[in-house]
Amino acid sequence: MIRVNHLQKTVDGNKKKVIRDISVQFSAGEMIGVVGASGSGKSILLRCLALRERWTRGDYTWNGENVIQGGGSGSQKYRFKCAYLEQNPSLYPDKTALKNVLIGQAGQTPLLRRLTGMVRSDDYMGAMDELEKYGLLDKAHVKAGNLSGGERQRVAICRALVHGASFLAVDEPVVGLDPKSAERVLDTLKGLCKEQNKIVIAALPLELAERFCTRIWGIHEGQLKIDISARRLTAEERRLIDMA
Matching SUPFAM superfamilies, A to Z (predicted)? Predict the structure, then answer.
């Protein structure tokens, strides 16, 4: 279980609060949809939870172990347990899908491996297994720059899993995708929670959060206004997060 107490994030020399005193907890197997109007703080919340942003204030515990106390940054040990996936995943466009999965992102793998692509045979088999599991085996040797948006998202998911992530924070993963590709990406994320007991927290359009997630967080001006089991939001709940 991950527990967050009084998370606050300020920017512009501590003049502007973008996350305001959020306290929440979540557990393995949950797929949480984060919804709210543009500029409400969804992306910065995901980055804080995935330990990609320094907290101004707050406590963060993971299965009872202190990760952050009173603000600051989490240790590298816990950063490796988290993956932050952006709208347009930061893949190496001139390397194949397989190489992207194997060598990971800057800061996650040794410099020599990133530069040369040298990997062990068991790493290779593990990466191929993940690509096959998510319908990408035929894309393993295709350069990432030639993949579709949905395929790039699934490659990024495979990469996170191969490098040991148990918590995926995913920022608008279906923006720009056709409905079929979007559904496949969200089915992939949902399967991670149901079948592998991962945690997925994703910023999503409301209708998709209602359909695919087990829980919905509604964010308005950096505050957590709604925390419910996934269902259709009422008109009043939509007004609370400026989505009426």
Answer: P-loop containing nucleoside triphosphate hydrolases
Residue 185 lies in a domain: no
Instruction: For residues 7 and 227, give the distance between their C-alpha atoms in angstroms, rounded to a whole number.
Output: 16
pLDDT tens digit sequence for 66-116 = 999 999 999 889 999 999 998 888 899 999 999 999 987 444 444 444 444
Q: How many domains does the chain have?
A: 1
Instruction: CATH number of the domain at 243, please.
Output: 3.40.50.300
Q: Please, are residues 83 and 165 in contact by the beta-carbon 8 Å criterion?
A: yes
The pTM is what?
Answer: 0.89
